[in-house]
């Protein structure tokens, strides 16, 4: 299940469950949050494992297009914000991510 909740409530603003008949409890693997279509709002990308569903990549977004803004890049499995710039260039000397953002495998939200 993928679920997004607002900061001040436990009522989900977005919720999707894995299609039934997948043969495993996950079915959607390794979700990431990134601005896929450059519209200024985040989308969730998941890998569909092909067990009871189509194989490939699925992009999930909010119909109202009002999710928080975030970066347009997620370049590798062990992604962290400071090891790639928004324009795709790699910094020659990387600032340790934990000293600035205190996260790992997470993208930067740009709250508006």
Secondary-structure map with pairings?
Elements: E1 2-4, E2 14-16, E3 28-34, E4 43-49, E5 55-60, E6 69-70, H1 97-100, E7 109-110
Antiparallel strand pairs: 1-2, 3-4, 4-5, 6-7
Protein model, in words:
The chain is mainly beta and 112 residues long. 4% of the residues lie in helices and 27% in strands. It is built from one helix and seven strands, in the order E-E-E-E-E-E-H-E. It has a three-stranded antiparallel beta sheet, with no helix packed on it. Strands 1-2 form a two-stranded antiparallel ribbon. A hairpin with an 8-residue loop joins strand 3 and strand 4. The longest helix is centred in the last third of the chain and has 4 residues, at 97-100. The chain is globular and about 45 Å long. The model has no long low-confidence stretch (mean pLDDT 77).
